[in-house]
Amino acid sequence: MMTPVHVLVLGGTTEARRLAESLAGDRSVRVTTSLAGRVAAPRLPPGEVRIGGFGGPEGLAAWMREHDVDALIDATHPFAAAMSRNAAEAAALAHVPLLALRRPGWVAQDDDRWHSAGSLTEAAGLLPALGERVFLTTGRMGLAAFAGAGLDALWFLVRSVDAPEPPCPARMEVLLDRGPFDLDGERELLRRHRIDVLVTKDSGGDATAPKLTAAREAGIPVVVVRRPPVPEGVPVARTPDEAARWVARLHASG
């Protein structure tokens, strides 16, 4: 009997969980999902799960060697650039094939008032000219970019899964919530808090996209932070099904 191919999934996204669900039903595959541990109560996928960091690319490479990993799939958040770089370096060190699983980014539609930014700091710099009541949906990490004295006149509604830590904007209300979010709820949230500008990362996917529709309907400008590129030379799958087929091809050729 052929030994199951051991796939390590760097997870934390909906796509990572769906991929683990798909692979866990295949007896020819052993799947381990690694979670960073930054969320207090993560939704655990099927299969084996490990929580915590590896200690950089060398640590990840050593872990893969120790646990006989045959394939590595980087299914982290599109903005987890440091982890993606570590994955690429670790895969090269351990001579393990690597695939990036990235859902497609959002595309502006007619009547959208989008303003592109290359970083959270650049996004913060655009805000004084766009509005005064900001719906900030970039997560709890990186709030320091919006804590500068030049933004003290602005009011922020910050939505995140876990409570943010300082430094934070001077005038801020925190909304602890986890997607998916529906359109009616997002419309009501914008209305109730009198939001006049939205800030988001180009995470893509459907779970948090309704806020963009609600902003479009209300004529609210949106600052969209561009996602970092996948490390050079790393192949990309756009869906969990594509990633599962990559694993199947890898197993068949092995």
Protein described:
It contains seven helices and twelve strands. By secondary structure, it is of the alpha/beta class. The strands form two sheets. It has a six-stranded parallel sheet, with helices on both faces. It has a six-stranded parallel sheet with strand order 6-11-10-7-8-9.
* Number of alpha- plus pi-helical segments: 7
Order of helices and strands: EHEEHEHEEHEEEHEHEEH
Beta strand count:
12
How far from one another are the termini? Answer: 14 Å
Biggest β-sheet: count, sense, barrel? 6 strands, parallel
Describe the structure concisely for a colleague.
The chain has 254 residues and is α/β, with parallel strands linked by helices.
